[in-house]
Amino acid sequence: MISRRFSTLFLTALLATAAVAQPAQPAPAAQQGPPSYTQILEGAQTQPGLLKVHLRAGHYLLEIPADMFGQNLLWHAELAAVPDGVASPGAQIASRVIRFERRGNVVDIRDLSAALDTRAAGSENDPPENDGMLPDHELDPADLAVSEASVPPILLSVEQIAQAPDGAALIDASRLFRGDVPDFSPQDELEEAFYPVAGIDPDRSYIERIVAHPNQVAANTVVTYRLQRTQPSAATVEIRHTLTALPAQPMHPRAFDPRVGYFPVTYLEAGSSREQGTVERTLITRYRLEKKDPSAALSEPVKPIVYYISPEVPVKWRSYMKQGIEDWNRAFEAAGFKNAIRAEDPPSTPDWNPADTRVSVIRWLAQPVENAMGPSIIDPRSGEILAAHVLIYEDVLKLAQSLYYLLASPNDPQARTLPLSDEKIGQMLRYIVSHEVGHTLGLRHNHRASQALSTEQLRDPASADRFGPVASIMSYGRINYVAQPGDGVKRLIAEIGPYDLFAIRWGYTPLDAATERATLERWLDEAGRDPLLAFGGEDDASVVDPTVLTENIGSDRIEAARLGLMNLERSLGALHGAVPNDRSGIELLRSTYTSALRLREGWLAAASKEIGGVVEHRTLRARETQFTRVPVARQREALRFVLSQLKASQTFLPATVLNTYAPIGASDEFVRSQRRLLMRLLSGQVYGQLSDAALLGENAWSLSDYLTELQSGLFEELGQPSVRIDPLRRDLQRLYLATLQDQLAAYNEPVPDSVVRRVQAQTGMSAAVIRLSLSSGQGTDLRAAVRVALGQLGPRLEQAVANSADSTTRAHLEDLRGVLAELPGQ
Ligand SMILES: [Zn+2]
């Protein structure tokens, strides 16, 4: 291994080995200058390729042909193997367009995409930020040279070791790949996982191998970082670097439009005059598809999109994956392509590698992660997706299984025992693969599409057969949980839907450059009238838009949640009898119960998003309203619905389930979930939205009326002739007063860490959300609203003390009165 270490004194080492090769010769001539190209490569193993790769005396050398200087290459780096807790293998570190330039005896590597935004598409964990701007003029691929008007930064300068007779430059490969080029370092990923990096240890870092291909060079490296604390003292990461030739002719680009959910790629284009500087252009990312027969309405592509199913994917899942991939053909037909996409087994050649960034692959990772991702490799000049790697983590099937059992078993008699059959899990895998492949075709999440269908449509078998539960597979509305037993709905899992067909047609139909923009605009105009084709994703508006939701279906959030809870009650009620009577059954009880609470909380949170909610219409027409506020009556209905669920529940505290695995804190998960829901109603963000609406004078529910109504629901027991308050309600009532107290304290002061820690322990919410929630009431009428609400609570508490049915209730009420005395309004 020592011979393959990165050496900072590579040239010295090389000279030393050159000297060793000729020990008997004094060789005065060799000492007069550096060794020649021929001398250095004596005895080297050489691979031809995009760059020649030489291996000599354990050192890798790269040979850059003279005609490659000035050409654009894509330098991509991804994690190949990681320490515990760090991102995941296959995750992208960086992807940049670079260029080699020669300066005397030095090779500079320029980063042409430093100013570009080349986001990896489709990570579930790391959704891209807000969308870019709509380009404002016709795009011409001839303009696609990256700006010459600005100076691209030099990423790295490397000494040329020797020059070949044909002008090629020989450089030390370790200078590129030893891990110290900041832009290609996994340091951020390590630090996010709490590995504080102190530096690279060259003695424990080396190039594993470099392989040259005709249009690519791929280097696998092992880099060890010293850490700033003693345990562990180091972190070792395997990184795969690839240098790939970009297409000689950039693909014809399509301009990005925020009304269709494509991942954007932004580049800088030189202006028409020097004064104009550079102009930012935003394109969609997509594969290059060209018709074999351009005149045919439906044609096979010149080159289809091929996804290899990696050899490590278990045999029993491969056919479902193939279906999930090829399901997209239906959408490509809408764009004029027949057999546009297909799944294949990889060739059985020994050098086939699933990490090869020249091919698209579905990979299978046996890691305890309930997730899947679809990063892509993109030519930023045109948005062309060159290849994509879909990563499916084995444990995603566990999550899929519990979701299917909980949501579908009331309507699917074949799903009433756990574990589910391979056929059922396979159908969920088909859905998951379709969704992930959708990302790698360029599509981002469309969380509006899960709200496209009405309750009636979701419960009608004919409609359900036609559309499924959602208008897009790119939403998170995975399963129809609204349909009730007896409705007769059979198609329960989401499939490629009307929006997906529209999006692929919009993004992939080959169009005449002269009329492209007008045609795309016309299609969007037509689509604008159809709720099945609407798009809303992960951007600013989605934070407050109750029609953009994850894990929810149906245009009526409240009714969907009510019906969903009825199904959840059925499946959770049957859970104890549905699992095998052994240890594996206990684990199934635990994980399925946790999933059920998450679903319930998600539905109730979605209903509460109506409060202060703003619906976006996204027609992008200045004289049409883009945002409308939810009517007060609907906001009130949502508040009442959520309050009606903030109660103890035997369904969601099933003793038969909890008594199999929870000796301590059996009710904690449920109680925390209820607390989070209450905190959501008391969030500073809601206050801010209500205050905003009041200032605009539109659908304004005054903060004071809102808080008073919330309080009256939360303390409804006080009106009983004989007041009895159960432990959960006592907990929520205490939390209510404590939260108001914290928010008033945060009116003028930052939220103290001790308060954040206390709320974190109570609710499991993140510190950032707690701070925001407690402090963003600043600038609203909160103090006055609290005064009014608590002014009414005081006398009610006093009377309830007298009517207490038991001593615990009395003590609780006395306790609240004590807290109240410290708050305004008394
Ligand atoms: Zn996704």
UniProtKB/TrEMBL annotation:
The residues covered by the DUF5118 domain are: 34-81
UniProt-annotated stretches for the region Disordered? 118-137
Q: Name one GO molecular function term.
A: metallopeptidase activity
The cross-references to Pfam families, in alphabetical order and at most eight, read: DUF4953, DUF5117, DUF5118
Tell me the ranges covered by the EcxA zinc-binding domain, including all copies: 419-719
Give all residue intervals belonging to the DUF5117 domain: 135-292
Q: What is this protein called?
A: Zinc-dependent metalloprotease
